[in-house]
Design a protein that fits this description.
This protein has 123 residues and is an alpha+beta fold. It has one domain. The chain is built from three helices and five strands, in the order H-H-E-E-E-H-E-E. A five-stranded mixed sheet has the order 1-2-3-4-5. Helix 1 crosses helix 2. The relative contact order is 0.18.
């Protein structure tokens, strides 16, 4: 499956979750529902995957975790916040860099229209 097909399926799953739950819940509720939808759509999913920080060739384990990794290719960072802040973009880009993933989706479910809470990143 090519990357655009994967991201299209992920976005479809996010829309389905948002359609049923709407805004205002905790991130953990959206995460559980996203995993359910992604797996039901036939995608391979890993949750809370550890990400190590590499500093001068030294691996540091500090508890950073990817919310959802799909098909070992697309990193998903979920939020339920009033608005994206620059730190959210920095977070997903850093996770992508250290995890060696080229595509990331930042999804904020705390919006009335999901398209306003969706950003795609490419390294």
């Amino acid at each position: 499956m090519e990357i655009n097909e994967i991201t299209q399926k992920i976005i479809g799953c996010a829309i389905e979750v948002h359609k049923h739950l709407g805004p205002g819940l905790l991130e953990s509720a959206y995460a559980e529902c996203m995993v359910y939808e992604l797996q039901n759509s036939g995608l391979r999913v890993e949750t809370q995957k550890p990400v190590s920080v590499i500093y001068k060739e030294r691996k540091l384990d500090y508890g950073y975790r990817i919310d959802i990794l799909v098909e070992d290719t697309v990193l998903i960072e979920l939020k339920s916040v009033d608005a994206f802040n620059p730190v959210h973009e920095a977070q997903i880009l850093t996770y992508m860099k250290f995890a060696g993933k080229k595509i990331g989706l930042l999804i904020n479910f705390n919006v009335t229209m999901l398209r306003n809470g969706l950003r795609r990143y490419r390294l």
